[in-house]
Amino acid sequence: MGAETVQLLAFLDPIIEPFEAEFMRNGALAAIVVGVLCGAVGTLVVIRGMALLADSFAHGVLPGVAIAVLLTTADAEPSQVAVLAGGLAGGLLTAAGTALILRRSGLKADTAAALMFVFMLALGVVLISRVSNFAVDLTAFLFGDVLSVDASELPLTAALAALVLGAFALLYKPIVLTSFDKRRAAAAGLPVERIELATMILLAVAVVVGFRVVGALLVLGLLIAPPAAAAMLTRRLPSMIVLSAGIAAISGPLGLLVSWHLDVAAGASIVLVAVGICLGVIALRPLRA
Question: What is the pTM (predicted TM-score) of this model?
Fold first, then answer.
């Protein structure tokens, strides 16, 4: 074996060794799937200024998860399928509630999102206080538990991600037209309100799929940082979506490597890598005159 080969193996060993563990491989696969999903859908968050709305969805899953735990468990470990279903119901309720407030009140989008945000957050805390065995799982719910993702959960995560990405591709043109010019979309005969609701549902489902990996409080980082970085690198929306998905996808394995070698929280490490890439793009970007 040549000296160059030995040096290459010595360089690659810290990268390859962590993923020899099954839980690291499962976590990396889940993080890649979630990264592609959040990176793609997150472009809508950035181009439409929906950060507060996305944050409200992240907190909106909380009461749904608490109700699922209340209904399906006593002292046993909560069913992950039930937790995912409850989070999905909470996210969809947040989307529907925000759309209803917008339609009935005439308030601005950020105000409507903030109302649902505080309502769902408060409701979630009240419900959690009724679940005696949920305190242990609360940290994982809020900040993610990617290293506990089982291989049996990956197909469901991938199926949900594929479903959202498929719907996004199908509704791409109406969503983009509505995002940039609602009046033109309405004049073209598009059902603007339904498209707006569909956009919020896509975002809500992306949040629900993502919270299992990086947690409800950190999923916003994957929805904002990769698209923000991509937006500074390209002006074409299709390229932005692909680039954002790629940045978010590589943030997963890189974040897990950081977590492994520094012995720090995995979900937070993934988000820190994503944000770090965005900050790197900002630092290297030429200053505008």
Answer: 0.84
